[in-house]
Amino acid sequence: MHPELERALRPVLADLQATSTPVPRIEDSDWSGDAHRPGAMLWSPDGSGRGVATSLGRPQAEQVVDVADQVQEGAVEELWGSAPTNWPACPHHPTTHPLEAQLHDGAAWWVCLHHGTAVSKVGRLG
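-> structure tokens emitted (126 positions)
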């Protein structure tokens, strides 16, 4: 896997693990077909897969936000029918919406959409 993608994925996967959300199996893949946007496949225990990719050369925090958004979509699908699908749940509104990955002060943060409050840096949930 490309080092920039691996570095961007690491904190997001840590958040999955910290919140007891299933962590997918990761496999290097050139599914995007774009040498400037390396990819990987995230495989669920049921055998379903989802691609994740990031653009090379961007600041690491931007790559983390990009990858967090993609992984979040997969986590919601994985949780569908077995647990609340608002991953990661907003601590201020735990039954209504998930946090959203955003760039704040040059870092990747999980943010409450309702208040716009930065709740936790990506990679430091739990």
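The helical segments are 3-18, 60-79.
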